Amino acid sequence: MKLAHIQIQSSDIQQTATFYKDILDLTIIEKTKESISIQAGDSILKFVENPQFSSIYHFAFNIPENKLDEAIDWCKSKVDLIFIEDQKVITNFENWNANAVYFYDNNGNLLEFIARHDLDNAQTESFSSKAILNISEIGIVNDNPLALGKQLIKEHGLAFFSKNANSELFAAVGDDEGLLIMVKPNRNWYPTQTPSESNKTAVRIENKGNKIELNF
Fold it and tell me: Which residues of the chain have pLDDT under 50?
């Protein structure tokens, strides 16, 4: 399952454009007074301006499974990586066979670089923004994540993420290429103390040749 296009909100489009272009070195493929669209590997990340918006989103980018250490070095001059404990910035998701690091964008959104070791995507080139493969995850906040997951599966032929212990508190639909991460409101976004809130989100999924438009 691929997350081809994500649309979320920002209170300041100009600052967002500056962050993603100048800090993360990603390409802005479309810009208007009210929105920007950013190429992130095979995915497009679109921000729509809402001056009153004061919440945050959580989303992740897949990177080559052998490039996390290089990604950390690349990040050091650009963003402050979030410490998990002591001086450790890497999270090991043992059941998912993945490792990740976290940081914030200019909006306070929680971003993640994740290296999934079951994907055959190792690269030999030095890490750069060109190594960002796609949007890997988008967080969706819902009162009943498990029920929402079952609804998406029934209506769109999707599947729960087989590596996740899906529950009424936390459920994931998709696979290593792309995941909808569904959590209950006020559950802190790992690894922060920031509680999750339900925010307007539009997602275009490509799955088994089908294009699926979802609005949350």
Answer: none
